[in-house]
Amino acid sequence: MTIQRSIFMLAGKDLFDPALPIYVNRSVEDYNITEHRHDFLEIVYVSEGAGTHHLGEEAFPVAHGDIFFLPVGISHVFRPASTSPQHPLIVYNCVIAPDAALQLLRSIPGGTTLQPLLESPRYRMYRDPYGEFHRLFQRLHYEYLSDQPGRETALYQGVLGLLLHLFRLDGKSEAAGANAIVPNGLETVISAVHSRFEQELPAKGMAAIAGIGERQFHRLFLKQTGMSFKAYHQNVRINEACRLLRTTDRKISDIASAVGYQDMPYFNGLFRRKNGVSPREYRKQASS
C-alpha cells in the first residue's frame, strides 16, 4: 500500500501585495511547515544552520551557502537537522510571479539572455562560496521590509541581481575545469578569511598562502570574487556583525570588537556604507 504525501498548493496571490508580484522573507524552518508546490518562481538561500531539503522525490543535505532556484510546480519542504532553538535552520526566500520576472528581463537591454533560467522546468542548485549572494539577499530583504522612497524599484533591481548572479553561476559551472589551479589557491585564502576574519590579514601573507605573488594575488582575487581582498575581508566581518546583531543582545561595541574593529566611528561608518543603515537601526529592523 502506497502512502500518499499531503502536499498543498501555495498561490502567489496569497503572498503578493496587489501591485507588487514580489515577496521576500526570512524563515526559521521547522516540522510544522507542510510540503507544498507553488505557482510562482522561488529563489531560496540557506542563511544559517543545517538540515534537509526535500525536492519532489529527492532529498539533499543543506547548510549555509546553499542556493536553490525552484520552477513552478515542484513540491518541496525544508527540515532542520535539529529541533533545538540554539541551532535553527534559517532560509531567505524570494518569490516572484513568472510573468513579472519575464517582463522584467524583457524590459532591459540584454535581459532576454537570462530567459532560459526562467523557462527551465528543472530545479537548480548552487553554492555561494564567497558570500556575495548572501549580501544580495540581505539587501533585498531589508528593502522589502522598508518603506523608503523607491522601494519597488529597489526590489526589482534586487531580483534582477539575484537572477544575474545565478545565470553567471550557471556559466561558471559549464566552464569548470579551466584554470583550476589558481581558484584552489584562492579557495584556501577565502577559507582563512572566513575562519579568521577578526584578525588582521595582510595581503602579502594571503598571497603566500595562495602560492602566488602579491600583485598577481590582487589581480586574481578581484577577477575571481568581483571585489578587492580588503573589501571582501570587510564584507565577511560586517556579515558576521549582522548575524550577531540579529541573533544576540550583545552591545554593539562588543560586536564591533568581536569582528575585528576597535574604532567605533569607523565601524559604524563602514556598517552604514555596506547596509544602508546604522548597526542600531539594523538590529531594530531585524527584530520587527
How would you describe this protein?
With 288 residues, the chain is of the alpha+beta class. It has helices at residues 98-106, 115-119, 132-145, 151-174, 181-195, 203-210, 214-225, 229-247, 252-258, 264-275, 279-287, and strands spanning 8-10, 22-29, 36-38, 41-48, 50-55, 58-63, 66-70, 76-80, 89-96, 124-127. The protein folds into 2 domains: 8-174, Sandwich (Jelly Rolls); 181-287, Arc Repressor Mutant, subunit A (Orthogonal Bundle). It has a 5-stranded antiparallel beta sheet with strand order 2-9-4-7-10. The chain has a 3-stranded antiparallel beta sheet with strand order 6-5-8, with no helix packed on it. It has a two-stranded parallel sheet with strand order 1-3. The longest helix is centred in the middle third of the chain and has 24 residues, at 151-174. InterPro entries: AraC-bd, Homeodomain-like_sf, HTH-like, HTH_AraC, HTH_AraC-typ_CS, RmlC-like_jellyroll, Tscrpt_reg_AraC-type_HTH. This is AraC family transcriptional regulator.
